[in-house]
């Protein structure tokens, strides 16, 4: 593939996302796996990770969004205005739509996929619309399948337009799943977990106790590799911010492990009790 020359803005945005907050979270999760028992292939542990840290991560995303929308954008079209400035001026001059179903969609996308340019033409599946004359039609039977709805046609068109920009298979998202049988049991666990996190107790064998540290002090440096061929990055994780989160993780993981173990033992005892005495014994 040729080198991209048209997506420098989004590439720059991803750099800012990484340097402002995303790389620190990645380094923190790397540390949890390296020192504090996180198994990234365990769906229950990933579910627990979401319960503990997803709100804080989303808050970092929101703060970054607010700051980004206040920075000036260079160029002839933007005239050093910030996204917030352009939004305000647009609302002032054009008005505000209430309950707009297209809210959040870029104007270029609206013009491209919702604009009208003549009567809509319907083609059979074998037709591409690439300049084939009508007298060159073959004698195949017409497509009897139901035509897609306007929404389906729009979705198919967007997929087709974006296909050439996809250079790899979709990234497989790690599976996360609650280990509890129903919402009631899950809620009971979360309420008990809240009480555990309010205590000062530190579990053993999770690398969080002082005598379990690799060095004299708790580390404030973590190394990550942002890509396959990229150089390793050294990320600073200040102890005052990230050590309490590591404590939360070890407390929660230890409690969930013991909770699930006790549940399995209770289920085993209940199963044995339901079977009753062995009537076949001699």
Automatic annotation (TrEMBL):
Residues 134-154 have a biased composition (Acidic residues). It comes from the Eukaryota. Residues 3-86 form the Integrase core domain. Signal peptide: none annotated. InterPro entries: Integrase_dom_put (IPR058913). Residues 122-154 are annotated as: Disordered. Pfam families: rva_4. This is Integrase core domain-containing protein. It comes from Mycena pura.
């Amino acid at each position: 593939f040729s080198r991209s020359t048209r997506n420098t803005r989004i590439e720059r945005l991803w750099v800012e996302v990484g340097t402002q907050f995303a790389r620190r979270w990645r380094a923190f999760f790397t540390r949890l796996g390296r020192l504090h028992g996180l198994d990234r292939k365990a769906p229950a542990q990933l579910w627990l990770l979401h319960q503990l840290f997803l709100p804080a991560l989303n808050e970092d995303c929101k703060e970054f969004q607010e700051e980004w929308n206040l920075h000036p954008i260079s160029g002839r079209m933007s005239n050093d205005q910030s996204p917030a400035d352009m939004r305000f001026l647009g609302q002032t001059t054009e008005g505000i739509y209430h309950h707009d179903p297209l809210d959040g969609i870029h104007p270029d996308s609206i013009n491209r996929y919702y604009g009208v340019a003549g009567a809509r033409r319907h083609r059979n599946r074998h037709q591409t619309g690439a300049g084939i004359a009508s007298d060159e039609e073959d004698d195949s039977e017409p497509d009897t399948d139901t035509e897609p709805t306007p929404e389906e046609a729009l979705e198919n068109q967007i997929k087709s337009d974006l296909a050439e920009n996809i250079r790899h298979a979709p990234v497989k998202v790690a599976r996360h799943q609650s280990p509890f049988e129903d919402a009631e049991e899950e809620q009971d666990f979360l309420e008990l977990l809240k009480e555990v996190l309010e205590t000062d107790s530190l579990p053993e064998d999770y690398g969080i106790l002082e005598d379990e540290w690799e060095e004299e002090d708790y580390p404030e440096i973590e190394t990550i590799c942002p890509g396959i061929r990229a150089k390793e990055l050294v990320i600073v994780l200040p102890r005052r911010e990230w050590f309490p989160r590591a404590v939360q993780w070890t407390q929660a993981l230890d409690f969930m492990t013991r909770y699930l173990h006790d549940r399995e033992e209770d289920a085993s005892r209940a199963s044995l009790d339901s079977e009753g005495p062995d009537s076949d014994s001699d």
